[in-house]
Specification:
Number of helices: 7
Distance between the termini: 32 Å
Shape: globular
Largest sheet: none
Structural class: mainly alpha
Helix content: over 70%
Length: 174
């Protein structure tokens, strides 16, 4: 059974996203969230520019589209990832990932609160279930013999705030 390329790409993206916090945790602690992400984004921008320039893919891009792309990158990637890595630095990769998983429920609640979209019983139950799952994942202090990536650094509410800001900024930048 062969999977379509877009499903494989989504699976690969999810796998990369899930391991990013594990790989980056030590660098985030050493450099700080902002500096780590700035170095990371400069490196990624250079590679992307090379990949796009080589086949001449810039040809169909006008200045307005380029500006929108830059704004999306600043809001969704630079800000979102910086907040995400700040959450990873404080909560650890597992807890930060759990908080980041609230981006879809947050979007649903904001859609209900701001433009007045309706939320059915199933949506409300899903939001509650997601929030409960995140609460179970982040509650409690790690055991004394827990892995170093499970250590809490700084204030938990600050880490939660950074995680929620990351989820919102990444959703906004799409």
């Amino acid at each position: 059974m062969a999977f379509p390329i877009h499903e494989l790409a989504a699976l690969g993206t999810a796998a990369c996203w899930a391991t990013t916090g594990l790989i980056a945790a030590d660098a985030v602690h050493a450099l700080g969230a902002f500096h780590f992400n700035l170095i990371r984004q400069v490196f990624v921008a250079l590679i992307l520019a090379l990949v796009v320039t080589a086949p001449g893919a810039w040809a169909g891009l006008d200045w307005l589209s380029l500006g929108l792309l830059a704004a999306s990158g600043l809001i969704g990637i630079l800000m979102g990832d910086t907040f995400n890595f700040a959450a990873v630095g404080r909560l650890g990769p597992r807890r930060a990932g759990a908080v980041f998983a609230l981006n879809a429920p947050m979007a649903a609640v904001l859609g209900w609160a701001v433009p007045g979209e309706e939320l059915g019983a199933q949506a409300v139950a899903g939001i509650g279930l997601a929030a409960a799952g995140v609460a179970v994942a982040i509650l409690g202090r790690p055991r004394a013999d827990a892995h170093r990536l499970e250590a809490l650094r700084g204030l938990v509410p600050a880490g939660l705030g950074f995680g929620l800001l990351a989820a919102r900024a990444r959703r906004r930048g799409r």
